[in-house]
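Rotation project, supervised by the postdoc (A.L.). Task for the rotation student: set up a whole-complex structure prediction and record inputs and outputs verbatim in this book. Inputs entered:
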Amino acid sequence: MMLVAISACAVCLLMALVRTMRGPTAFDRVLAVNAIGTLIILGIALHGFIMERPEFVDIALLYAILNFIGTFAVLKLFSTGSLGDAASSRKK
Amino acid sequence: MDAQLLISILSGCFILLGVLALLIGALGLLRLPDVYCRIHAVGMIDTAGASFIILGLAIHEGVSLVTVKLLFIGIFLFFTSPIATHAVAQVAHKSGVVPVGRNLVTAKAAKKPAAAPAAAKAKPKQAAKTGSKVSRKSRGAS
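Outputs recorded:
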């Protein structure tokens, strides 16, 4: 069952990758990259269970946090033009 | 022995449900026509698929520290991915991505071809969207 789930994750990841390459706007790409991040989290957790080493779940937890922060950083860069650091706000 | 079988059947059912949600969400991400529609599909991947697969893994593992970590991942994804998709929708709307569909404002803009070049100079993204809308309409009429 875990092998079925990890292969389905791989298939979904390929589909999201096609959307990342083809997406007409940048927001399609951000959305597809967010979905790829979620699929990779699931893939890491499932890989840990398949290999009988559930310590991989720690890496999945770290990746979940990074994925969330990364999506928000890219969206903030798109909407405001800077990431809010002191140097670029002084230039304004 | 019996309890072991029950646990593996239950976790398998949950993982299968999650896989189904993942496949439907990825198909929607590939096939739906618009950013806003694709957000709907990605929300399905992030909440239903991830939650069911993590619940299945937690049932498979039993009561241990790994289950607690898995539940942390599940709760984190369940709360953060709707926030992320909401932010994507908000920023897309602010930067002028027009939704596909029957919309009075864009229909008026598509009817007036004289207004189109000015709009193309001002907002190239929006003009591309209305252009695709015109071609869709003509296809539907023929």
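Student's summary: Helices of chain A lie at 2-22, 26-50, 56-80, 86-91.
Supervisor addendum: The interface with chain B takes residues 1-2, 4-5, 8-9, 11-12, 15-16, 18-19, 24-25, 27-28, 30-32, 34-35, 38-39, 41-42, 45-46, 49, 54, 57-58, 60-61, 64-65, 68, 71-72, 75, 78-79 of chain A (CB under 8 Å).
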